[in-house]
Description:
Layout: E1 13-21, E2 32-41, H1 47-58, H2 82-92, E3 100-108, H3 114-118, H4 120-139, E4 145-150, H5 158-175, E5 182-187, H6 193-211, H7 217-220, E6 224-230, E7 236-238
Parallel strand pairs: 1-4, 3-6, 4-5
Antiparallel strand pairs: 1-2, 2-3, 6-7
Helix pairs in contact: 4-5
Amino acid sequence: xxxxxxxxxxxxxxxxxxxxxxxxxxxxxxxxxxxxxxxxxxxxxxxxxxxxxxxxxxxxxxxxxxxxxxxxxxxxxxxxxxxxxxxxxxxxxxxxxxxxxxxxxxxxxxxxxxxxxxxxxxxxxxxxxxxxxxxxxxxxxxxxxxxxxxxxxxxxxxxxxxxxxxxxxxxxxxxxxxxxxxxxxxxxxxxxxxxxxxxxxxxxxxxxxxxxxxxxxxxxxxxxxxxxxxxxxxxxxxxxx
Length: 241
């Protein structure tokens, strides 16, 4: 049998996007809305550890001691039990800090002006547009990149999300006089370990800001290149990690 030809790994940058919180500005809504980004390049190391852990959970039903059956297609921080969350965060915390970066753009909803609360679509688009521009500027991106978002949450906001991302990217490319290419994809989280990782990172950041719980946040904060907390009229508070 001929040896398999391994495709050359490109130097393209991958950006995985996750959102947390809601657009409900009443007392019932979240206090924060945030866009969280995971930045990586290939090869995506340690993914096999997360995949192998999932298969180990599937095999629990074969245990003669009667372990509870777990049918897990992918990992979701808000749905996984504490035992699973602890293990996934332990795996994530072993990543090489040089190959994994994260950025969080956080909106303090109670400080949003009343007129902006009435224009939720414009508010969403303007802030995602600014978030992606700030991320690209912080990374000083000057090479081709790919953005991947989770397919499911984006159904209702797909056109708004694509429009905001493209607008921000085009403005960044123009302002920096760059000749680079990019693309945006919407994938099922079960197909991408990276989407599951950014979901976990996003969940940890949200819990810290929304509930003041930082147990899991401490495991991922070393990957954060910055956290921008946006207050009234887009004043930025740079958070010291």
